[in-house]
Amino acid sequence: MQITAAVLRAADAPYTIESLDLADPGPGEVLVRIAGAGMCHTDLLGRVPGDLVAKPVVLGHEGSGVVEAVGPGVTGIAEGDHVVMSFDACGACANCRAGVPGACPQMTALNMLAAPLDGRPRATDAAGEAVHTRWFGQSSFATHALGTARNVVPVTRDVPVEKLGPLGCGVQTGAASVLISLGVGAGDGIAVFGAGAVGLSAVMAARVAGATVIVAVDLHESRLDLARELGATHTLNGADADIAGQIRAISGGEGVQYALDTTAVPEVVSTAVASLRTTGVCGLVGVGASEYTLDANLLLMGRTVKGIIEGDAVPQTFIPKMIELWRQGRFPFDRLVTSYPLDQIDQAEADAQSGKVVKPVLIP
Question: In the chain, what are the domains?
């Protein structure tokens, strides 16, 4: 079928809006008409020089929309279903079976490479050349995307489906890191470093969990203002001196039990660990750093540093929970969203990188 997609042909090139020929859904696949697609920081990996993300490629991994067709062998998903598209996983390994599909050994191959594992292109351009459309099992910067039965999550039809895409990755990562991976509870304290979509989702989740100290740290005052509105009890500008000392003072001198870094900036990660009390846990969800240097004495005193992928969530169960919290007014993730037409994708990207907006959502 003919679709319209935003194609990235080189790391340093603008997106081009093109007509592509997309294959019919094959075994285990689901065709989704995209109503909205969030732009996530991870999509910027397509801008990194090198061969990690095959080109030309359709990026986008926070799609939501309506199922138009299903391939052979698909059960539990039907034409007309409203769905959120999340990350892909094999579904069969020990980690997938244990309920942590984000730690699937095939995570990189199924999500980060964008190229089809079987070598068969699923989309071609006007010249008949292959365009990669396997980014996070969906490539949703388009009018239509092919997902799999593993990463397409049916949701209730009485909520605006065009708003739901960010639940598939960024919002899920922030919220589930707090509620599932770290297990923040009532009365706990947490410091969140970076008040983008992931960090602000973590702030909202910490309020849901009943944390009594919720510190948000960022360089943008507008984002800190929003963090306070969404549940942060304290905010700090990351450019200020001795952030770790300020957090320890806020939390009674000992430090917070939990910290979450969304920045992947080594100096910020060091500060996050230093802000913990002994026995505290720092979760790392930021992407892009090659190495971190930490004070060994802080770790010897009982602190833990934990890598987290997708919040350790199972999307099929966690995404409906976030939607229900939103319906109750307890998780207003839509306040993070600014909508753009698909053909304004370059402007959306620029606005996200500058900090002007928190979460762009592209509307085909």
Answer: 2-168+332-363 (3.90.180.10), 173-309 (3.40.50.720)
